[in-house]
Amino acid sequence: YDVKRAGLGFGFYDAGNDPHTPRRLRLMTELRRGLEKEELRLHYQPKVDLASGHVTGVEALVRWQHPKHGLLYPDEFLPMASRTGLINPLTDWVLQAALRQCMDWRAQGMRVRIAVNVDAMAFQQADLAERIFALLTRTGAPAECLEIEITENLLTGDLDKCSAVLARLADRGITIAIDDYGTGYSSLAYLKQLSLHTLKIDKSFVMDMCHDENDAVIVRSTVDLAHNLGYTVVAEGVEDAEILQLLEILGCDSAQGYHIARPMEPDALAAWLSQRPAG
Ligand code: C2E
Ligand code: MG
Ligand code: MG
Ligand code: MG
């Protein structure tokens, strides 16, 4: 049971957050089957370099094509999967599907790095690095194909353990990004202790940054902090041209958001990429 998610334990009942509602419990049983029946899908959303416009990579975002409920988004099933062991086979499935896709695209002459979100719970598994290396071998994908996005909250756990896993992944050539940066509870100490390459500023700071001075200050400070530590910095939630322009002025390296492109099915992404100037 995740105490942090439940606040201090005095919270009000919130059916939206309760993993034990009948519908959600049923969904978990169905997800186990859905994994076997290959009902999960990955959509891909590009990230672009602000200075050149080149695509720096794509992020894989999981969806579940449910036979009755249609296309389900991660918010509907990931929190529960994270509290049950299901997150581990799901993570393996996502990693394998992303690496296979990377190889398919390479066979078509498209080289693009794929970022995969790895849940905090999956990171508690001591063999995570080995499983990732085994998937690289099995799919034949080079480590440079893969970026791992981890949310800042996971770093409130066992930092030494996490640090060791991240170092092994980074040594192998896998890029590591901190996702939803700025929303976690962790101290800044981890920034110098972990093998990181990228900070990804959470969309809650980015979406209103043109109208909210505080958000703009947070984004600017994060860009400077990241650069001073030698990391690149990405902004998510770029919904209009004004935000894109301000990010460029603030020196942010790359951007991701609906204004650039929505998450897309693999074929749509390939078509979108082919319209872009080569990078
Ligand atoms: P995230 O990794 O921070 O991904 C960004 C989310 O913001 C995605 O939602 C994306 O569709 C959405 N987004 C992208 N651009 C914009 C924009 O301009 N405006 C707004 N308002 N939203 C935008 P999605 O696909 O629903 O995923 C939600 C979260 O679920 C992700 O947040 C990530 O934490 C998690 N997730 C997604 N796929 C996976 C996965 O395969 N494994 C794990 N462990 N987590 C995943
Ligand atoms: Mg992400
Ligand atoms: Mg994010
Ligand atoms: Mg986010």
From TrEMBL:
It comes from the Bacteria. Residues 24-277 form the EAL domain. Signal peptide: none annotated. This is Diguanylate cyclase DosC. It comes from Thioalkalivibrio denitrificans.
